[in-house]
Amino acid sequence: MPAGPPAEPTGAAAAPQNPWAVVRSRGYVSILVISALLGVPISAGAFGFLALVSELQSLVYDDLPKGLGFHGTPDWWAIPLLVVAGVLVALTIRYLPGGGGHEPAEGLKTGGTPSVAAVPGVALAAIASLSLGVVLGPEAPLIALGGGLAVGVVKVVKRDAPPSAVGVIGAAGSFAAISELLGSPLVGAFLLMEASGLGGPMMGVVLVPGLLSAGVGSLIFTGLGSWTGLGTYSLVLSQPPAAGRPTLGEFLWAVVVGVVAALLGEAIRRSALALRKLVDRHRLSLTVLMGLAVGVIALLYAEITDRPITGVLFSGQDALGPLLADSAGYTAATLVVLVVCKSLAYCASMSAFRGGPVFPAIFVGAAGGLALSHLPGLGTTAGFAVGIGAMAVAMLKLPMTSVMLATLLLGTDGLTVMPLVIVAVVVSYVGTMRLARLPEGPQPAAPAG
Cα separation of 431 and 414, whole Å? Predict the structure, then answer.
C-alpha cells in the first residue's frame, strides 16, 4: 500500500507534507477505497455490538425478573448485577491486553494507531459495563473497536503497509463505528476531529477518508435497522416541543446554566479521578464496591421519587427522548434528585468501569436544564438544549461538538435555540478551563493582550 497521510491525527509529523500532493497521489485514492469498503463490515459490527448490549439489558432487567416470578423489576435488582459487572470488568482490566480500553474519567481521548490486541478486552469490559447498568455510554468502546478492527484488517491484507496509511485507515474505522450513534455522521466526525486535535493543512486529508467511511457506515446502520426491525440505536428525539424565539431572560439563563454546568462537571471529574486512584490500587474489591454504589444510588432514587431505577442506570441515551416527552410529569424536585443521583452514579462508574462519558453528560445536562425550566423565563426546549450543550462541554471540553449535539438533536427547533446553546457552551467551556487543574510540566505562554 502506498504511503498516505500522517498516522497521528494530531498532525505531528517528522516533516511537513503537501496536502495537494497527497490527495493527488494514487496511494490516497487507495486509502479512500479501502476506507469505504471497511465502512461496511465495521458499521455492521458496531450495529451488532449495540444490538447485543440492548438485548442483554432487556434480558437481565426485564425478562429475568419476570422469569423468576417478580411482577416487575424490583428496585434492588441492579445491586447484584452491578456487583457481577464489577468482578467481570476488574478481571478483564487486570488480565487482558489494553486494560479494557479507554478510561472515561480522563474524558474522551483519541489519537494514535488503535491497538488490535486490545479489541477483545475492550469488547468484554464494555459489554459487561453497559449491559449490566453502569452509567457510561458506548461511544468510546466503539471508537476503539472500529479503529482496532480496521488496523487488524489492513495488517492482514498488507503486512508492509506504511504506518501513515495504517493510522488513517484506523481512524476511518473509528468514524464508521460511531457513524449513526450520535444521530448524524457529521456529529461523529466533529467529535473525533476535536477529540484528536486535527488541525493544520493536513486536516482535510486525514478527515476525508473518515467522512467517507462514516457516510457508508450510516447507510449500513439505517439499512440494518430497517431490515432487522431493531432500529438504528441513534441518538434521536421524536417531536420535541416547539421552541420560541430566544428572549433576553433566556440568554441570562444560558449564562447561569453554563456556570452551574462548569461547577458540576468539574466536581464530577475531580471526584472520579480521585476515586480512580484508589480503585487502581485495589482493582477487584473497589470496582465491585463502585458497582454496588451505583446500584444503591439507583435504589435510593427509586425510593425517593417512586420512579424506575432505569432513570439512573445506563448511559441515558434511550431515556433522553422519554425524559423530554414526559417533562411535564416531572416536578422540579424530582428532576433535581435525578440530576444528583445520575451525577453520583456517573462519577462512580467513571472511576472504575469502561465506557464513554458522552451520553451520561448529555442526560445530566438535559435533566438539569428541564429542572431550571420550571423557573420563570426559561422555556422547556431551551432549557433542555442549553443544559445538554453546557454539560457536554464541561465533561468533554469539545465546544464545537457540544453545540452541534445540542442543536442537531432538536432538528429545526435546534436552530432556533442555537444562540442560547452557544452562550451556554462558551460560558461552561471557559469556566471549566479556569477551574481545571493544570497538567504537570511547563505550560505554554498565554497570548499577549
Answer: 24
Q: What is the CA radius of gyration of the chain?
A: 22
Give the CA angle between residues 123, 127, 132 to the nearest 5°: 165
d(CA 277, CA 283): 10
Work out the angle between the directed axes of helices 332-352 and 358-372 (0-180°, nearest 10). Answer: 160
Number of residues that this document lists for the chain: 449
pLDDT at residue 10, rounded to an integer = 39
Supply the mean pLDDT for the chain.
85
Report the alpha-carbon distance of residue 311 to residue 73 in Å, rounded. Answer: 13
32-82: pLDDT as tens digits: 888 888 888 888 888 899 999 999 999 999 999 999 999 889 999 999 999
CA-wise closest residue to 182 among 237, 243, 262, 240:
237
In single-letter form, the type of residue at position 234 comes to S
Other CB atoms within 10 A of residue 62 CB: 13
SS3 137: strand
pTM of the model: 0.87
Pick the closest to residue 153 from 27, 42, 46, 47 (CA basis): 42
- Write the pLDDT tens digit of every residue in 217-230: 777 767 777 777 77
Q: Is 236 helix (H, G, I), strand (E, B) or coil?
A: coil
Are the C-beta atoms of residues 164 and 5 closer than 8 Å to each other?
yes
Question: Which of 143-152, 382-391, 427-436 shows the lowest mean pLDDT across its residues?
Answer: 143-152
In which residue are the cell numbers 434521536 written? 236
Using CA of residue 127, residue 308, residue 236, residue 383, what is the dihedral sign? negative
Cα 423 to Cα 255: distance, rounded to the nearest angstrom: 7
Neighbour tally for 37: CB within 10 Å: 13
